[in-house]
Amino acid sequence: MNVTIADIAKATGLAKSTISGALNNKSGFSEKTRRRVLAAAEELGYVPNEIARGLSSKSTGSIGLIIKDITNPFYNHITKGVQEIAGEHGYTVFLCSSGEEHQAEINHIQAMVRKRVDGLIIAPLLEEVTFDHFFELKEQNVPFVLLGKIQGLSCDTYEFDDYDGGRQVTEHLLSMGHTRICFVRGPKTSKAAKLRYSAFINTLKSHGIEADERYVFQNANGIADGMAVGKQIAAMPDRPTAVICFDDVIAIGVIKAVMEAGLQVPEDLSIIGFDDIEVNTFPLTTVSIPTYEAGKALAWTLFDRILQRRTSGFQHITFEQKLIERASVRQLYNK
Amino acid sequence: MNVTIADIAKATGLAKSTISGALNNKSGFSEKTRRRVLAAAEELGYVPNEIARGLSSKSTGSIGLIIKDITNPFYNHITKGVQEIAGEHGYTVFLCSSGEEHQAEINHIQAMVRKRVDGLIIAPLLEEVTFDHFFELKEQNVPFVLLGKIQGLSCDTYEFDDYDGGRQVTEHLLSMGHTRICFVRGPKTSKAAKLRYSAFINTLKSHGIEADERYVFQNANGIADGMAVGKQIAAMPDRPTAVICFDDVIAIGVIKAVMEAGLQVPEDLSIIGFDDIEVNTFPLTTVSIPTYEAGKALAWTLFDRILQRRTSGFQHITFEQKLIERASVRQLYNK
DNA sequence: TTGTATGCGTTATCAC
DNA sequence: GTGATAACGCATACAA
Fold first, then answer.
1. Which of A150, B77, B278, B333 could lock onto B291 through a cystine, CB 3.0 to 4.6 A?
2. Average pLDDT over residues A130-150
3. Distance between CA atoms of B33 and B14, rounded to whole angstroms?
4. C-alpha count within 13 angstroms, C-beta hemisphere, residue B240
5. CA separation for the pair B5, B16 (Å, rounded)
6. Chain A partners within 8 Å of B55 (Cβ)
7. InterPro entries, per this entry (chains A, B) (predicted)?
8. What is the pTM of this model?
């Protein structure tokens, strides 16, 4: 049913190897036979079997991308960047989402290895998990690039400077007169959440302020959690004056809930997020993160590895985060 | 370097076929050898090669999903639904985005066929394009399900009732007293855009109102276009009282631009979108579309085809669209 | 310039 | 129960 190079060999009276060579534009074939081969291939409706090609050539022309959440714009832009570069290389990408679940991440990585992807780009869970599967991956000799760093694992990494982002955000709030600040942490498996939080604590401390335990919310993830948190904040008797959210999605959830509860932002409550997502009407003060660029960069270095253009040591690159002041933080006069 | 069943055959002194059978839990092997094989595989660090398996078994365990825009929540939710069902079947998905470009769609489909995916889910461009590649795909005998219908092409399809969505939205605006209504059409390759627009025109006409040409914007796609349109609307001397946007992303762009220009929504301008995207603070009146459910349904019927559970005729399912009234449309008293 | 032979890692069809 | 052996579709080294 499926036409193979054997069929077109038979049809043209040439050998399989000639067909293969001519089809792949290898040198050493007359223009005449090349055309003959191409014509026959066209006529028979030949579609190269990349599976067979992969088995024989040790390269599948596909890479795997493992993110944490398909519905978060943060990962959408990373994905977009990766896709773009992959496309430029004639590659195709398997997209997997771990959904912040350890076992899912493990399963996806193993599935990708079994599918013999030429390389892997992974946004790994970094807190409260084990990393055996990464060391195993390393031994399996499939090139991979990480969005985040894992202790003792040598590979190319990209990071965003989350600590500094947390610091900027806290400094900003402080400079606007806020001291009763609420902090909504992201997923407990997120190192970004941890870093931003410790930056928050430390920056507060350096200004002689102690963070209030009651004002920190753990493990928020997604808009639903954001709304739940917002509801709680709105109902607090000694409400904070500002809240730092792990990301814009959560911030948007908080804003929705808080407004539904009859509060105004920033008049009654100042709010800051992270990621600077574009599709949003609210003038949210946030921290911009170059996700699209990071996606492209991740893919570039992966392809450098795959195509062996670079065999030198592993590189570790950190992207800056940058506070974008808009109108969701109010200047406080009377502390 | 890579350990194969041949290696584990050598290690155990058994035959390759025995290894293969035992590993795949085929019946007819003693518990003893099965355990021996498993142990050896574990010890040698055997990782099955799905490429080789695919070549031999004619099934790759992967499907392709071709959407139009990775960064649009609409497709994110479809993707999420598809991924979920694929995962349940032990399948992996290639994600491709056509970016509303005809040639990209063609290339992606062909790439997927070359990769011998077991099936394809496609959100095709439906206007101002040719469909030869779909008829070709049909002849290549790879199962596929479409989000949209193509004339003369028999396959399973899902659709959203865009005409009715357009009607609902127009009726609503009319009932709120609006007659000077602006319509922002989506991509010119979008049939949804076309249907909604014709519903708009017809509904208006049935109320004895003629649509104003100056109030229709063509080919908007993404937030940037939405903002550009919003800017233009804000600057119009005889500004419309309401605007219907192809989707929420565009609507959000319009709202941003219009507010930057100093207008209030809905006081100065009423706005309606489509899709009901969740991550959004603005109380946008919009049309909800069951994207996540559709994603799951698309995948279900694809797997029905792949696993031959259903061999009867092709099915065509239409999901309803439902107006969600929030606060972006104002009641007009003096027409 | 073209043809032959072999291998890639599995699965599958047979015998034994 | 288990073991040869032949596909699967292509690439490639080597001959011719």
1. B77
2. 97
3. 9
4. 28
5. 6
6. 49, 51-52, 55
7. HTH_LacI, Lambda_DNA-bd_dom_sf, Peripla_BP/Lac1_sug-bd_dom, Peripla_BP_I
8. 0.96
